[in-house]
Amino acid sequence: xxxxxxxxxxxxxxxxxxxxxxxxxxxxxxxxxxxxxxxxxxxxxxxxxxxxxxxxxxxxxxxxxxxxxxxxxxxxxxxxxxxxxxxxxxxxxxxxxxxxxxxxxxxxxxxxxxxxxxxxxxxxxxxxxxxxxxxxxxxxxxxxxxxxxxxxxxxxxxxxxxxxxxxxxxxxxxxxxxxxxxxxxxxxxxxxxxxxxxxxxxxxxxxxxxxxxxxxxxxxxxxxxxxxxxxxxxxxxxxxxxxxxxxxxxxxxxxxxxxxxxxxxxxxxxxxxxxxxxxxxxxxxxxxxxxxxxxxxxxxxxxxxxxxxxxxxxxxxxxxxxxxxxxxxxxxxxxxxxxxxxxxxxxxxxxxxxxxxxxxxxxxxxxxxxxxxxxxxxxxxxxxxxxxxxxxxxxxxxxxxxxxxxxxxxxxxxxxxxxxxxxxxxxxxxxxxxxxxxxxxxxxxxxxxxxxxxxx
Amino acid sequence: xxxxxxxxxxxxxxxxxxxxxxxxxxxxxxxxxxxxxxxxxxxxxxxxxxxxxxxxxxxxxxxxxxxxxxxxxxxxxxxxxxxxxxxxxxxxxxxxxxxxxxxxxxxxxxxxxxxxxxxxxxxxxxxxxxxxxxxxxxxxxxxxxxxxxxxxxxxxxxxxxxxxxxxxxxxxxxxxxxxxxxxxxxxxxxxxxxxxxxxxxxxxxxxxxxxxxxxxxxxxxxxxxxxxxxxxxxxxxxxxxxxxxxxxxxxxxxxxxxxxxxxxxxxxxxxxxxxxxxxxxxxxxxxxxxxxxxxxxxxxxxxxxxxxxxxxxxxxxxxxxxxxxxxxxxxxxxxxxxxxxxxxxxxxxxxxxxxxxxxxxxxxxxxxxxxxxxxxxxxxxxxxxxxxxxxxxxxxxxxxxxxxxxxxxxxxxxxxxxxxxxxxxxxxxxxxxxxxxxxxxxxxxxxxxxxxxxxx
Lengths: 456, 456
Description:
- Two copies of one chain form a homodimer.
- Chain A is an alpha+beta fold and about 450 residues long.
- Helix content of chain A is about 30%, strand content about 25%.
- Chain A has helices spanning about 50-55, 105-110, 120-140, 200-210, 245-265, 270-280, 285-290, 300-310, 330-340, 390-400, 410-415, 430-435, and strands at about 5, 10-20, 25-30, 40-45, 60-70, 80-90, 145, 150-155, 165, 195, 210-220, 235-240, 295-300, 345-350, 365-375, 380-385, 420-425.
- In chain A, α3 crosses α6, α3 packs across α12 (about 430-435) and α5 (about 245-265) packs across α7.
- The first copy, chain A, is globular.
- β9 of chain A pairs antiparallel with β9 (about 165) of chain B, so a sheet runs across the interface.
């Protein structure tokens, strides 16, 4: 709580979380959103107007002046003895949905416009802020430049998933060209445009010019996936660094994740303890688990052998595992939680299951990919050293039949002063699931966008 | 330049800006994007392969080992005497568009994928980064929380301009409902959705829950304005603070802008001096002008009187001026540059030219708006105290015939625990125009989106 000294008394402004007491004294738990901890306001009923006190119910907004004194009750060290109270806004108990009793996360999603007023979402939003700031600080302190890559793109080959179309055409009255197709010359950008699924390709333009960049912006997937792990709109962090090979990239990813978790432990202790107690009592343990262990670094091929061996010894997976398959979360978690008991970075994946831009290994079969696997959530970071050889990159693009007309500008980075470089992507909400202990990705973003849901 | 010590020698990696010299010695200006200043590489021609040196042309990417020594030439204090050179990537002089000679900004916009390799755009991007970081640091240090407001919105009454539609419907085969209208039940979100024009309304949800928030995200305007001041996609910063009145809001805006400019002067001195010399030799003077003057605070009504008086005295404006008009940039600049010779905050604008959510003054005619006016660019910040009275806000919404069905969640902030609050919006690229001295807004964002242009 922010308390403003006013002479010998302090002022506190906030929202009433609860009011209890008796006919002589009321205790108001007041919260201004800056902490999960309330300040207790002690009200000598005799000194105040009865009607005023009646209107001070859960959710009401008030300003209180009073002496800050040591508290005699349990649960707080100080409290305010109210000398005067100003009522800014009432909250009719018959209407206000956030009464003192607990609410399901499902119900709170339906009132996402009010849920930041709860302890849980206050804590999540404060942790979310702390992680966002830590990301900017980490990169700024190390000489990286924040690059704003475009949200609206005319490229349809970013290759990471289904895309939303962006248009100013009137869908009730679509203009048609001579072939009776939509006449995009009349659209805002003169051609079809979509929402970005990744800033990486433009990030590489930045890295091969100013050396070390990172993106941190919204990205979009139009996948009809109604799961606790998918959002249609989410935020991504994508560093990209000239002259980094895959090993530098792994060092960066490990150092970065540990820095973020240490930052949370250093700056969000009240909120993390609250989340640990309320939602996930292994949260703090898991944060320390990541912090205190070196990450295992292992080729995919070796990882597959371990998983196959586990199957032979009787471990049951839902999905089959053999060289060439894309690992499922259950496989990733087995390696981390049961086999190594440490975070794992898997490298050198089969080229068929990875993107066209990854550096090709000499074996002709694998690429210099690196995925960081965490307990509970599986893959948290995906990255690679990039193919810097123009001919090899172009051959791969042709092999995959990616339309070259869309890629000329990307290929120019390899035509002119090509540099070895590497980068990775971190889904911000994936990180927040890990750091807050929440189970559903809809509960770590203020206003989730999912199939059939775009409220507020 | 980042120089890595390697034994008694250093290593430098970067891109060749130029190469000159004679048959005995070559001088390579190398740049890694971390500074506008190159490092000079001195090459004793006799020690190197002729073919290698021939390939080291402007734009090529190299790694150099050599001794770092005091320079005997003018223009630098140290230089590297190359002992070995690794060529990462060539840049064919017949193909590479960024040869040593200068290029027009118009031409560079056409190759926006390569322009970050120029001194000018390197400087702009570094300043852009510094300003983004300073914004996060300013708010973080003051206990504000960074709130990610949604990019895709189903609201069409944000009220700030024309919007882009977002859809997954197939425009070549639009589903129709029984009324022969587009069947949005088949669209991704089950209804029409658009790209946000402002995060403010959701920002108010945050401020009335966790107290002090700011947004910093992309916003979109589908206006067919091909001017040096308009982008279809740009970034906005919108702080929103519970318990702030208009005066607190003005204090915040002035302190914030001065902090940012001081941060630029403290952290971007080389780049600012470069921009001052190359593009705008009043840039540094203008930055100091803002820093060293208290902003004038003046009601709109008084501002109009000053402008009318100027007209009476013979000053010519392109646009007429009288009480009730929305001020043009020429009017704003007259107040700042000629009348007060200080930045100006105009307050209490006529309600007809301002948004529905602004706090209504008792005069029935004006609202508690505050616009910050700067030299050269006019309005840089627009904000207000918000209407916190439920009935007054609802009446204004009805008066303006804004569809209430879209506003229920916003009105809930006034129904439940309403708090006085204020906020403002700063266009990030508008700020960058001011801080970099660039004249066209397309030149302060990496990949500009404007009518008929969405390349890269």
